[in-house]
Amino acid sequence: MVLRRAFSFSDDSVSVALRSPPYGGAGDNGVTWESQLQKLDPAFHLLRMRRLQSAWYQELFQSGRTPYEDPSRHVSAYTDEMRLWWKSTPKSTPSWLRPMYELELLYSSVYVMSPSRRVASMSDRETVSTFEDCIAFSDMMVVALGDADTRSCYTPHEALRLYFIGDRFLDTIWKNQDRLLGPTRTPDNLSASGPDNASRSIRCIEQLTAMLGDFGRRWGRSGDLQIIFNSKSEVVLAMLRGQRRRSGLVAGGVDGAPSYETPPLT
Q1: Inter-CA distances, 73 with 51, 69, 123, 178, Å
Q2: Which residues pair with 196 in a beta bridge?
Q3: Residue 198: pLDDT band by 50, 70, 90 thresholds?
Q4: What does residue 107 show for φ and ψ, rounded to 5 degrees?
Q5: How far apart are alpha carbons 113 and 123 in whole angstroms?
Q6: What is the pLDDT of residue 263?
Q7: Percent of all residues in the chain with a pLDDT value above 70, rounded to a whole number
């Protein structure tokens, strides 16, 4: 998906069942198939997400052409399936892998709510969800890239994901300024009060810019993504800073939001 190419787990040529033990009991070494397969539960769980992604990606962005009569119902069904996937994460999943699963969920949720031929525009609920999921994704990536133990797991594909999240974030803010740039709203309470969203948005854009720059230092071609993102974000940042000045707020950090410090190249 990050390369915007077709992929499918539903075609007959690639429809392969997940591995299952061929028989009960133990092998010659006394190790059972069940115990061996249990160690692979986290990998199988990720494959289940790939199947979910394949279904909606093909339907919304590859093969589907006719707009849905009730797009929100379809989008909600896809996002609900992925949230159930997240909630059913195997207990045997290592603690370091769980944040990667959550990043997968956030990225996929933003992707599935993006406008397509099937879904021409986002509902108010989807707009707010996209805004909040983009910020959550950025905050989690800051933590992930600052962890020396897992940092090496992230590749240039994460740069493409970051750019996609950033692009959707900019577009969502620009087209929904009146709806988003007030008190914090949630999908379940569109009028909730809370911290200033202009400051939260500026912080998110700054995080994304810094992380894209870091990926550019590690993998040269990824640096072009930061240049493009910088160009796109200039007008949005100017608007957000103007909004903050008009609100009488001073520049500063957002409570609870992690700051990104470029780690040494490894």
Answers
A1: 20, 9, 11, 25
A2: 183
A3: very high
A4: -60, -45
A5: 9
A6: 54
A7: 73
Q: Which two tokens mark 16? A: 């392969």
Q: Which of 160, 51, 165, 158 is nearest to 113 (CA)?
A: 165
* pLDDT surpassing 70 at residue 257: no
* Residue linked to tokens 């879904």: 119
Burial 122-141 (b: 16+ CB within 10 A, else e): beebbbbbbbbbbbbbbbbb
Helix crossing, 197-218 with 156-175: angle to 10°?
150
Q: Which two tokens stand for residue 233?
A: 């974000």
DSSP sequence for the chain: -TT-----S-STTT--PPP--SSSSB-TTS-BHHHHHHHTHHHHHHHHHHHHHHHHHIIIIIS--SPPSSHHHHHHHHHHHHHHHHHT--TTS-TTTHHHHHHHHHHHHHHHTS--SS--S--HHHHHHHHHHHHHHHHHHHHHHT-TTTGGG--HHHHHHHHHHHHHHHHHHHHTHHHHSSB--BTTBTT---SBHHHHHHHHHHHHHHHHHHHHHHSGGGHHHHHHHHHHHHHHHHHHHHHHHHTTPPP---TTPPPP--PPP-
The tokens of 226 are what?
Answer: 């930061």
